[in-house]
Amino acid sequence: FTSRLQNVTFDEGHCIVQWGDTFREEYREVADILWVLPQTAMCISSATMPPPMIAALCERFRFGKDYELFHRSNDRVNIAY
Q: Which domain of life is it from (predicted)?
């Protein structure tokens, strides 16, 4: 199984930090998947992840400087509120 796995994606990644120490304690352990899948690409996405939370995720997943950050605005001209 692990030899065929190409990518692991966590949507709403901010929940790993927000809930990992209280509400969903299992989220605290999700970074341990890297020990089982060290060569597998990892994607953590969220529309609400401020810089301190990004830093906390990088620390929790032990990314060091070995990651790429793609930051896109959610401000769209065709959406009004």
A: Eukaryota
- Tokens linked to 53: 């939370």
- The range of the structural domain enclosing residue 72 comes to 1-81
CATH code, domain with 43: 3.40.50.300
H/E stretch holding 7? strand 7-10
Q: Looking at residue 71, what is its pLDDT?
A: 87
One-letter amino acid for residue 27 of the chain: Y
22 vs 16, 26, 27, 33, 61, CA distance in Å? 10, 9, 9, 20, 18
Query: Residue 27: its pLDDT value, please?
Result: 85
Number of domains in the chain: 1
Q: What is the CA radius of gyration of the chain?
A: 14
